[in-house]
Design brief:
- There is one protein chain.
- This protein is mainly beta and about 450 residues long.
- Helix content is about 5%, strand content about 40%.
Length: about 450
């Protein structure tokens, strides 16, 4: 820490409450290959990505990646919806934020925060006169010290938390377009959980509306994205019926980035007005609240017509809590170990003996793209006593399952020993999911079933 930074931190500590905390983050800038449409499909229309964007959806980018400590060896898990964004940086008014930054790219980069208090060395912006953290070279580290003062948080009458940007500011337009950006969420004093999130909401989602330019303005390289995804490929916007949900929407880019995020199926509030559309300019931000009381899968998109046509669309899902308990539970499965048979461990949780049952399964061949195989039934005629577990097997595919990202299994019919039967009342009831990637987030609800809307 420089002498100037140490003095600035000492002044802040002297003027802040004794119970304020210092929140530590370990963030690296890393070069990645980003896919704007991992499924290869327009998931809102049941078709391949339209031209010209379908020519190429993978491009070299840079991202902010969070790690658990200063060794920068173990990545910290992030929600699926974070997309291309860096981790959410959180604080409560009065807190200090310390970000240890490691630059693993080939160019100079920085972290510049909006809405926080800092000294020159922690500004993270390269211009005359610049501070020590303005341009961190390849392989170098720098620690930024920021403070969430009263001006960083919400005022009376606002929601209990506000959102700000952070992004690279060594060569800002190039860095933002590369993907070096993320959100800072500041919660009002006394209204935060220990992790800094607001106490009065159940779920939070961050959505960034931005046109990424990969090909010097040519249409095939203009990706009208939400969190770096196009045409419905943004995953993870899932909430339970009755949840209190806070949405943080942000804009970035140039004069073309005039966005109007619009939610179908629900209205929201900013604390003083009811709304279902907000207006965003580059670098602007907005926090709005929703009560998730209308179950279904709903469109979330930019209302600007040519942005919508270019794929600036996603969906969010409000799901109902299960109305009845599941009679079967899938405890473990083996699909990628190279064995001649796939195996599945099934537990009877019904409280009654089961005579026989049949399962159906679907497979993720790409993210969010759930497909029916030609043969999708897995029967068992073995009795299964109440509370007991058994292993069932099925012959493995000749080529194995390495191209399958995930398996989803659901009971289609259960026959109990007393003659009673059980069948699902809707698609996805009592499903279980197994993933090739053991760190894949839990699946709360199945994605919409793909139906081709334009077969021509």
């Amino acid at each position: 820490m420089t002498a100037r930074a140490a003095l600035f931190l000492a002044i802040l500590l002297a003027g802040s409450p004794a119970f304020a905390v210092t929140r530590h983050y370990y963030i690296a800038a890393e070069e990645v290959t980003w896919d704007y449409a991992p499924s290869g499909h327009d998931l809102l229309a049941g078709r391949p990505i339209p031209q010209p964007w379908g020519v190429r959806t993978k491009w070299p980018k840079a991202r902010y990646i969070e790690y658990t400590d200063s060794t920068f060896t173990v990545r910290k898990p992030q929600p699926e919806w974070i997309g291309i964004l860096g981790p959410v940086i959180r604080a409560e008014v009065g807190d200090h934020i310390e970000v240890m930054f490691l630059n693993r790219t080939k160019a100079r980069h920085s972290l510049h925060p909006h809405g926080l208090r800092y000294d020159k060395d922690s500004e993270g912006a390269f211009y005359i006169p610049w501070g020590a953290g303005a341009a961190v070279g390849p392989g170098a580290r720098y620690t930024y010290h920021w403070y969430a003062d009263e001006g960083s948080g919400p005022r009376a009458g606002q929601l209990s938390s506000v959102v700000w940007w952070y992004h690279g500011h060594t060569e800002e337009p190039r860095e933002s377009n590369a993907g070096l950006l993320g959100a800072i969420i500041i919660t009002a004093k006394g209204k935060a959980r220990p992790d800094g999130s607001p106490k009065d909401v159940d779920d939070e989602f961050v959505a960034v509306f931005m046109i990424f330019d990969e090909f010097q303005g040519k249409p095939a390289g203009l990706f009208h994205a939400i969190n770096g995804y196009i045409f419905g490929n943004l995953p993870g916007l899932v909430m339970k019926q009755g949840d209190r949900v806070r949405w943080y929407v942000l804009g970035m880019g140039n004069e073309k980035d005039l966005h109007t995020p619009h939610w179908h199926g629900k209205t929201l509030t900013d604390g003083s007005h009811n709304l279902d559309v907000v207006e965003l300019l580059p670098a602007s931000t907005k926090a709005v609240d929703m009560i998730a009381d209308n179950p279904g899968t709903w469109l979330f998109h930019c209302q600007v017509s040519d942005h919508m046509e270019s794929g600036m669309m996603a969906t969010f899902t409000i799901y109902k809590p299960p109305a009845r308990s599941c009679p079967l539970h899938f405890t473990s499965g083996q699909f990628w170990n190279g064995a001649p048979d796939y195996s599945l461990n099934v537990r009877n949780t019904s409280g009654k003996d089961i005579k026989s049952y049949s399962l159906v399964f679907e497979q993720f061949l790409a993210p969010q793209l759930l497909s029916h195989p030609f043969y999708d039934t897995w029967p068992s005629t073995q009795p299964l006593a109440a509370g007991r577990e058994q292993t069932i097997e099925m012959k493995a595919y000749p080529g194995g399952a390495q191209d399958i990202l995930g398996w989803v299994l659901m009971p289609s019919k259960i026959v109990f020993s007393d003659g009673a039967t059980w069948s699902p009342k809707e698609r996805g009831e009592c499903f279980g999911a197994f993933w090739k990637d053991p760190d894949h987030p839990d699946l709360k609800v199945l994605p919409p079933e793909q139906i081709e809307t334009n077969p021509d």
